[in-house]
Write a structure and sequence with these properties.
This protein has about 180 residues and is an alpha+beta fold. The chain is built from three helices and six strands, in the order αββββαββα. The strands form two sheets. A four-stranded mixed sheet has the order 4-3-6-5, covered by helices on one side. A two-stranded antiparallel ribbon has the order 1-2. The radius of gyration is 30 Å and the shape is elongated.
C-alpha cells in the first residue's frame, strides 16, 4: 500500500473532442451577419436629416389622378410606378394624412411611387367611393419645418379626366 501514499493529482479533461478548444465559441463568429439587402445610394431618412440633405418628391405623383381605394396598377401610366418617390432614395418614409392617419412605405432598395401607393391602398381598399370624402390622390408635400421624416398626403374630390379625353372634348367644342 505504499503506492497509495502519493498525493492525488487534480483532474483534467481528457476528452479528445474538446481538447485544445475553449468552452465558449470563437469571438470571430459574432460579427458575421448577413449583409443588408439595401441598394447602394439608398439612405435612411434619419441620416438625411442629420446631414441636412433636402428631399425632392417626384413630380409625377401630382398627375396620377389615382383613387385611394383602387389598386395602384390602375393608374393611367404604369411606368410611373417604378420611379423613386424621393430624390435621394430612402428606405422608408411616413405618409401623413391631414386627418391624422399615418402609413409607412418601405423598400430597402428605395421607396418607389408604387410602394407609397401600395401603403395607402392597404388602408383604403375596403372603403367604397362614397365613404371617402376626398377619394383621389392630389400629390405629396414635404414640409421639413413640420417633420423631416414624413410626407403630407394631399387629396382631392375628383381626378381630372385623362389628357386624351380632354383633347377630344376641346376638338368637339372647336368644330
Amino acid at each position: 500500500m505504499s503506492a497509495d501514499t502519493a498525493p492525488p493529482q487534480p483532474l483534467e479533461k481528457v476528452d479528445s473532442a474538446i481538447s485544445g478548444l475553449s468552452s465558449s465559441p470563437p469571438e470571430e463568429k459574432k460579427g458575421h451577419r448577413r449583409a443588408s439587402s439595401s441598394a447602394a445610394g439608398v439612405y435612411n431618412i434619419n441620416d438625411l436629416e442629420k446631414e441636412g440633405k433636402e428631399l425632392q418628391i417626384a413630380k409625377e405623383t401630382q398627375k396620377l389622378n389615382w383613387r385611394l381605394n383602387k389598386s395602384p396598377t390602375t393608374v393611367d401610366d404604369p411606368a410611373v410606378l417604378k420611379k423613386m418617390l424621393t430624390e435621394p432614395p430612402v428606405k422608408k418614409i411616413d405618409l401623413h394624412f391631414p386627418l391624422g392617419l399615418e402609413v409607412t412605405a418601405r423598400n430597402l432598395k428605395g421607396v418607389t411611387i408604387k410602394d407609397a401607393l401600395d401603403a395607402i391602398h392597404k388602408q383604403f381598399k375596403k372603403k367604397a367611393d362614397d365613404e371617402l370624402e376626398l377619394p383621389v390622390l392630389a400629390g405629396f408635400e414635404w414640409d421639413k419645418e413640420e417633420s423631416w421624416t414624413r410626407l403630407i398626403v394631399h387629396q382631392k374630390k375628383e381626378g381630372g379626366a385623362s389628357s386624351s379625353k380632354k383633347k377630344k372634348g376641346k376638338k368637339d367644342e372647336d368644330e
